Amino acid sequence: MKKIILFLTAFILVVALGLIGAPPVEESSPQLSAVPPDAQWALYIDVQKLISSAMFKALVDEKETAKIQGKADEFLGKLRIDPRKDLKGVTVFGLGKEDDAVVALSGKFDRAYLIGLIKAEAAHKETAYGKYAIYNWDGDDFGVFAADDLVLLGENEQSIKQALDSLEGKKRDAAPPVLARVLKESPNALIVGAVSNISGLVGEHDKPVILTKMKSAGGSLTEKGENLSLEVSIIAESSQVAKDVEQAIRGLIALANLQLKDADAQAFAQAIKIIVDGENVRINAAYPLNKLIGLLHGKVKDLSFF
Q: Which of 53, 109, 154, 204 gives the lowest tally of CB atoms within 10 Å of its CB?
């Protein structure tokens, strides 16, 4: 699992550098239905739309980007998975604990071949759970075919079971609460993500006081004409806390402006707009895609550690 997560994460990060996706998955998608109602955070990426985006195409030929993608492709090739053709969507979600994250992969898979690889592991185990078979290998790696085109992976068996329970019991006409608001407010979003319990997610130790007063947050990325638009919504405990959050964010932006040397990077920071409406803090930023691609071209080499 660790290798699977490593290479999937590497691939997703390469793709996500483009920050371009597609309209979010439909709210009735089994992928979203697998997200438990009490999930503390969730992220959805439409892989097929991402890799066909203008931003991805502009970055894919970068030396370091291509190297990372090449490693991911090599690994996934051993699993008979072509990310450009077979992977449709990736949903990642967690219930709050360090090891309870679940990765839901939607796409075309050679089910018999993949199960054969697992069964070839000497220490593999198979546990029946309702109509499903949960596989365990390498000690703390778990996986299940929720359907021929939907795979769930994780390092916590109970989290896998909760996802299966949610998939079986959740009404398909409603998105999980953690993403519902973002999907409703950003119907044309390219990538969506949300945190339903910020304080619980950051833990009990050494966290900024301001975070303990934030309830939830959601964000989306949308391509609007020649611009990339970022929208973030933070729900605070009160209107006063919302004003405090605004001031804290403005302070961070001011600090960034002092430290940034690149004119385009400074312009991006200055493009961020903040609006407070009661307990809601809305952050919006729109920036020309061609300039953003230029900025990312200069940063891709920082990924050479892969």
A: 204
In the chain the first and final C-alpha atoms are separated, in Å, by 18
Number of domains composing the chain: 1
Q: Which of 214, 220, 233, 212 is nearest to 277 (CA)?
A: 233
Beta-carbon contacts of residue 96 (< 8 Å; ≥ 6 apart): 40, 197, 200, 201
State how far the Cα of 106 lies from the Cα of 21, in Å rounded to an integer.
15
- Provide the β-strand partners of residue 235: 216, 280
Of 15, 19, 61, nearest in space to 224 by CA: 19
**Please, what's the largest Cα pairwise distance for the chain?**
59
pLDDT in tens, the chain (306 residues): 444 444 444 444 444 333 333 334 454 466 777 888 888 888 888 777 777 776 676 666 555 555 556 666 666 777 888 877 888 888 888 887 777 899 999 999 999 999 998 988 888 899 999 999 999 988 888 999 999 999 999 999 999 999 999 888 754 445 556 676 776 777 666 788 888 878 767 665 566 777 888 888 999 877 777 788 889 999 999 999 999 999 999 998 888 878 777 776 677 777 899 999 999 999 998 888 777 777 666 555 554 434
The whole domain housing 23 covers: 2-303
Q: Tokens for 149?
A: 């085109």
Is the pTM for the entire model greater than 0.70? yes
Cα distance between residue 188 and residue 177, in whole Å: 18
Query: How many CB atoms are located within 10 Å of the residue 261 CB?
Result: 7
Dist CA 104 CA 150 (whole Å): 7
Amino acid letter, residue 297: H
Distance CA 260, CA 285 (A): 17
